[in-house]
Amino acid sequence: MLIDIATTIVEQMQKPTLAFLIGGMALAAFGSKLEIPEPVYKWIVFLLLMKVGLGAGISVREADLLQLAVPALFAAFVGIAIVLLGIGTLARFKKVNPMDGCATAGLFGAVSASTLAAAMAMLDSEGIAYEGFIGALYPFMDIAALVTAIVLARLSAERKAAATINADGTASAPQGLPQGMVKGILVDTFRSAAISALLLGLALGILARPDSVYESFYDILFRGLLSILMLIMGMEAWSRLSELKGVAHAYIAYGLLAPLVHGALGFGAGLIVHQFTGFSGGGVVLLAVMAASSSDISGPPTLRGALPEANPSSYVGTSTGLGTPVAILSIPLWIALADLTIGL
Fold first, then answer.
1. Residues 6+ apart with CB under 8 A from 39
2. Whole-number Å distance between alpha carbons of 58 and 208
3. Chain segment 172-185, per-residue pLDDT in tens
4. pTM of the predicted model as reported, rounded to 2 decimal places
């Protein structure tokens, strides 16, 4: 098992998401003068999020909406629950920056398409059936988790800004939120460049027929643009690495334990859907895998665009470096549990 864990971690470090992040950190560590102009960075983020939104919208459009409705509702619920759990634990840990904690929880609440694909391949090899619309579930968990994390991070920042300094030097936050603050943050979140691009792509994918431009332009450019974004985030992460001194153990513990807890939440939700709708055992396994995984595609550009204050070395490093290997290694666990509880 230890050899498997070590091998999986090395494989993750060789994949573009983490490899380019580490490459950017190495450049910054050696004092490189490399800079990516801000307009280029914004253009890259826009294209990445449009691609993610379009792909999600197309998958939802092609699914059977009646069969999709109940699992999609539970997938969104699980995504939100994961974020709330992460904010209630990691983000409240002493010395952990609340913004970094919220971003990390958001990334763990979102879904890794590569981990989901690995689980599908494993089920196919075992001859275990699952619903054809499973791929269309990930946007519901993904977007629900990311929006929840962004809104709660903004609320935390507003409360901190509104805190007053007492005579003894301590700070006290207001007991209640100012009237209209939540509404204002929600409006600002959905109007933000990152969420606007994501939702625009989702709407176009569902309501229009953008398949040709998606396949000939967005899909082709995606991997290369994502590697550039991770390079930028790596350079920024190095400059902010010192912020993690004293709290690295919290992120390590969260990265190793959270996928198992989140997977159990997803598995439980899958069992409920199974009881009400006859959701397949393979579907239950894949819902657990989606919950256990953490986003390596849609999450980083969304959070970098919506929460630029958050430290990439905390949320990307914890997610891709620790969370993803654990999520991949846990796939046989969910298969065994499904076979034990409902049969496969």
1. none
2. 9
3. 555 555 556 667 77
4. 0.82
